[in-house]
Amino acid sequence: MLPSAMPRLFALLLVSLPCAVLAGGPGAFITSVRVEAMAEPESSQALFTVEPDTSYPLLKKGGPGRKWCKLRGATAEGWVLCDGAEETAVAAAPGAGVLAEADKTPELGVLSTAAPEASGCAATCAQARLFPEPPSVSEVDREVLALCPSRPDGSVSAEAIHQFFSKHYEDKALQQALAAAGRTVAGPEARQANLTWLTGLWTGTGPRNAFTYVFCGDDWTRGLIGGLHFLPRYAQLEAEGKVCFTGPARGDAALQGDNYLIQFRGVAPWSCGEKKLGGFSRSQGALSIAAIGAQAFANCCARDGAKTEGGVYAVPGLDGATWKIRCGTRNGTYGISSLYPTSESPTCAQPQASR
């Protein structure tokens, strides 16, 4: 039987999603959404991530109002909210006929093991680097660089994005952004909901996502390079000889105020793409950019399923700095499509009534 078919099969056999069952011995827990397993009920210490459509041994129910389930993960045991989970016997194992039918499920396509190699363009740079000496990079920004794909056709996974936000959930900028977006921040239930919301802003069901676009760059194998609005990533790729600085995008200076506005191109075999108008902030790190994105999304995007919308957001506390956000379904589901610093005048600075 195909491994990918098993979670879907058990999800159908159990009563509901999210679902947990508890009999005399351990039961099974399956959820339809990704959640964090905590050290104790209502704790803020996450021990491991509970993946959707995956069966976990259910050890017991407990906590306030018996709304929590204790699960066994691969490396630890932790608690998740499971209000409504039934305490009945585990469903019987599927019969041979059901298993045979499930075996007919086609396998999902996988990424080729051979990374694409660009050709037909320059393999060296003719102009001096934008950063002759690599700029200093914070530990958090190094974490984001480590998430960026090692091949030009890759994307940062939703799981990795969720884990990044989970690790830094208590960051002051993120907490302020969540509050400014009108979201409840106190309590474990709010934590789970906010991590799901933050992850959903940056990634969806599609093969591309805004996290990769903004922090790593994408569309390297196409004519026009997408995104790359994160200074440490540009500097990393430049130092590795994968991109070449080709000059300021406007005027004679690459640095305009706090923002770089430049042109650059890819280098074979990484990419033959071009960026005719690219920009990133000199002062904002990964977490502050993520926080700006959350606030800009809440203030500039109606979240009514429109294909394309957004605006120029005035960031509170940054001396009038503005960032442009576009929202839509580029990720496969509605969320952030792009986010970058700009010198344009703000068009949205107050919470949307529809939020």
UniProtKB/TrEMBL annotation:
Q: Which UniProt keywords apply?
A: Hydrolase, Signal
Keyword Hydrolase part of the UniProt annotation: yes
Among InterPro entries, the record links this protein to: EndoU-like
Q: This chain belongs to which protein, by name?
A: SH3 domain-containing protein
Give the signal sequence positions.
Answer: 1-23
Recorded GO molecular functions are: hydrolase activity; RNA nuclease activity
